[in-house]
Input
Amino acid sequence: MAFGSFSEFLAALERAGELRRIAIPVATELEITEFADREMKSPGGGKALLFEKPTIGGKPSAFPLAINTMGSAKRMAAALQVGEVEELAHQMQLILKAKPPTSMKEGWTLLKQGVDLLHARPKRVKDGPCKEVIEKDFSLDDLPILKCWPKDGGRFITLPNVHTKDPDTGERNVGVYRMQIYDGRTTGMHWQVHKVGARHGKRYYERGERMPVAVCLGGDPAYTFAATAPLPDGLDEILFAGFVRKKSVELVRCETVDLEVPADADFVLEGYVQPGETRPEGPFGDHTGFYTGVDPYPVFHLTALTRRKDAVYPATIVGIPPMEDFYIGDASVRIFLPVFRMNFPEIVDMALPPEGVFHNLVFVSIRKQYPYQAYKIMHGLWGMGQMMFSKYIVVVDEDCDVHNTSEVLFRLCANTDPQRDTTFIKNPCDSLDHGPSLPNIGSHMGIDATRKLPGEGYLRGWPELLKMDDPVKARVDALRKQLER
Ligand SMILES: [Mn+2]
Output
């Protein structure tokens, strides 16, 4: 059963022992970050935290705040209503298997059709819980929005689902772009150049029209997951959310803008972006672990705020890893692995370790058959969507567990000749990456840590990896059990 509200999800976490209530007043300025950061850095990602009495400038907020709700493998699976994230990957695989795709493009089309068939098409409804309260006289100062880190430029909404549409085709997009609070009714809108929201904005700019924007907070966590997932352009996040939750998303019309939003959202901020208008945004303690600087970004003007009566404000923080975002990104990688395998059947597994904060480090294991196959995989990944930002790609053999960083580093150290096994390329870089000398462009490095073949010039005969015989292992297992008795 899909979650009917964000609160229902929190109740499920509580029943599973995955939620801790904080019943004392805690400041939204820095203190909640410190609480949450310690939780996220405890083994396995700690627990979700529900702050029942967040304070804003020393005054109690009318709304509770939940954080770290997806910050563990268990909670991420709970958010997606599965025992394990792999179950969704399996469902994805089934859609793709219906008819083997012959190319990436065909694969995505098939996936889109498959997802569409599987109870994913949204339903239009006249009313919904997100309209229980329609605020005319409101201020964002009343929401428990976090000031995350000491040198942040202000308070930031960190888990907004930003709904926009293409003015030409009407195609919808939902993305998560941080929003800096300027005043009670104005925020920044941090969509970077590579994002779909920015592309829609450009079209409104060219047409000289005001851009309607609706920002949802809360509701079924599947919405937020879908909004962060690296879906290909044109695969509707709402459709994908419907596929994940196995129930059509109910959409309701906004009061002041021509957009539709999930009817069960906790808060809906309606408003617009005036094309061409920008304002300095930042600094912000980012997922890179560093502050990103001040840059001009579009401005979001609020025209209405609608909400549930019992609304809970969802938040996250980013910073030095590991953080909650690792578990969200890791789930995406697992779910979309079948899609990657369509074009790269030799891929066995893939991991984005937390230290790499998504784009900086990618581990891929392959079933290697021919010389330089590792390089073919690197170049393939560098050409695919957000994977273009991957700063380091390390390719290992199929028998290496890419989710075990220690094992990957062992292969890297043992199997490589640095000069022979590395390659450098030029590619676009993540806007948030402060490493490159110029923003948005730079170099990436690929490391081939697979065993080398004679065809790759390795003529010494690759040695065999140590491995204990299975009967001996079984015998020692038994002996150890005897000792425990
Ligand atoms: Mn999209």
